[in-house]
Amino acid sequence: MEVQALFSAIRRRERHALAQGITLVESTRSEDRIKADQLLSLVLPYAGNSFRLGISGIPGVGKSTLIEALGGELLRSNPQLQLACLTVDPSSPRNGGSILGDKIRMEELSRHPQAYIRSSPSGGYGGGTAATTQETLLLLEAAGFNLCVIETVGVGQSEIEVSTMVDALLLLLMPHTGDEIQSIKKGLQELAQFIVINKADGELREAAQLTQQRMLSAFKLLAFNGEPLPEVHLCSAQQGSGIENLGRNLIQFSKSQRQSGATAKLRVKQMQQWFAREVSNALSKRFFGEGDNQQRYLQWEAELVAGKLTAGAAARFLFAGHLPPA
Amino acid sequence: MEVQALFSAIRRRERHALAQGITLVESTRSEDRIKADQLLSLVLPYAGNSFRLGISGIPGVGKSTLIEALGGELLRSNPQLQLACLTVDPSSPRNGGSILGDKIRMEELSRHPQAYIRSSPSGGYGGGTAATTQETLLLLEAAGFNLCVIETVGVGQSEIEVSTMVDALLLLLMPHTGDEIQSIKKGLQELAQFIVINKADGELREAAQLTQQRMLSAFKLLAFNGEPLPEVHLCSAQQGSGIENLGRNLIQFSKSQRQSGATAKLRVKQMQQWFAREVSNALSKRFFGEGDNQQRYLQWEAELVAGKLTAGAAARFLFAGHLPPA
């Protein structure tokens, strides 16, 4: 399909066109890259109008079940909602998912006419790389999706990366497993606006309540300068409890951030960060792709670790094109 | 002085030679840089044998008073100690110091035959830049200083930087001012191995104890996986209370980290980080120094913020040498 036709079909929210567009921005072939840039320049004026929500948690915490339950609830109570979800492909064992496909795990959501689910095997979330996930978001927004969920596997770095592309991050935790404490330690409460303790049912109910209390008291100690702290919710994605309230608060958060101008401000900052990162990555890529720079880097690093010169000198010799003495 | 003679004089711990050597590594003139590299390659085999201690805290918390008291105590109880200290120059108003010089503020220490104090007006700590501070450390170690203290003003970034060049970071706090909580929030407890609440005397004594209790209970909540948490000490640098115990624990920490191999492991990691940073900074510097790249970066950033293209496309156009459409 020609780029202009693809763009029009995406604007009409045609799913095969959307899939084709996403594949295009994920492609690393240079002729695809040119087309992808053309497509992105067409969609940009129509992008930006969604609530971008990251959902993160360790494997097995119930991210898919939550998205299925929360998505269904939000679609019921918000008739204007168009929901898109970029998920980890669970068929990829390194992502720790089940062997069932997302469309089966999110059965109701995947059949809903106002929902679109895109799985990707190739990364911790959504698309191939963090950069293409950003671009995929723009395509989804131009297609009229006003809630874009990006699922990520909670292993530290991925939350930090996803937090630079979403309006809010929801961190899903298990009751009483200690991972709530690790989350605080790693500073995730500064990244997440919503912390949700799942599996608050049956024999884990009490443990979940205890976890909530511990988190709230830790946050109280951490409160400073009136900076906003994350909301801490309990839910059972399986049984559906706590989901309605969570959905209401998410929509409320989205509206108030947008109205106060906080969303617009955050997005400018995110764009600047992304540009700086793209430029820095491109500089590294160009340098390490030239001649034997990669190999010489490792050689100078070994000299440095052996105590033969300083980091500054190693960098200067590397740039001067020198090889370490044999 | 010729580099070889300078090196020999530094090895004999001659103060004027040490001062000259430090000035050399801080210099940005290219002929000085060549000499500095020669000097550093001579000192490297003799460097690495000190306990490197960062001391950080906001202006007015009493860093100089602590260093004076702690340094005096350590010199009394460790006859073999040779103490060097790189400090913020208090005469520079932007560092928030008093108008007295360091040599007056650290009167006893500055006159001690086994202590050396070097102030620098030009940065948050020690030397001109973080990189030259690293190199200055090597000169001090080759001169036989086995305790090197680097004072930094606690404003966030500087602690993070200094933590990548020291074996331990001591964070000095006021009682009951809220900054202990901000420190936790900013993740400094992951950087600092020693947290010291100063001014635990007179009417602030109770507030200091309360602060210590609050920190300890917050840390208890944060404890995870048996990772070591910082020690929390009370002291009055002015009255000298708590200093002896703190000094003993610092020496103990230094010994156990060195014996377990933790120090050696940490320093390899720090060298690799510094090399990566030097290379990345050099790549940026080279790029932004070429032609109109700096100006074009800002122009493409403005286009990006205006929503006219994506960060990836802006980076590609920047590298392709394009100017944004007028």
Give a written overview of the molecule.
The structure is a homodimer of 326-residue chains. Chain A has a 7-stranded parallel β-sheet with strand order 3-2-4-1-5-6-7, sandwiched between helices. The first copy, chain A, has 2 domains: 1-44, Single alpha-helices involved in coiled-coils or other helix-helix interfaces; 47-260, Rossmann fold (3-Layer(aba) Sandwich), CATH 3.40.50. With 326 residues, chain A is of the alpha/beta class. Chain A contains 14 helices and 7 strands. Chain A is 52% helix and 12% strand. Chain A starts with a helix and ends in a 7-residue tail after the last helix. Chains A and B meet through helix 3, helix 7, helix 9, helix 10 and helix 12 of A and helix 3, helix 7, helix 9, helix 10 and helix 12 of B.
Q: What order do the helices and strands come in, and which of them pair?
A:
The structure is a homodimer of 326-residue chains.
Chain A: H1 3-11, H2 15-26, H3 30-43, E1 51-57, H4 63-77, E2 83-88, H5 102-105, H6 107-111, E3 115-120, H7 130-142, E4 147-153, H8 157-163, E5 168-173, H9 179-185, E6 194-197, H10 205-222, E7 231-234, H11 243-259, H12 262-289, H13 293-305, H14 311-319
Parallel strand pairs in A: 1-4, 1-5, 2-3, 2-4, 5-6, 6-7
Helix pairs in contact in A: 1-2, 1-3, 2-7, 4-11, 13-14
Key attributes of the depicted protein:
326 residues, 7 strands, Rossmann fold, Single alpha-helices involved in coiled-coils or other helix-helix interfaces, globular, seven-stranded parallel beta sheet, 2 domains, alpha/beta, homodimer, 52% helix
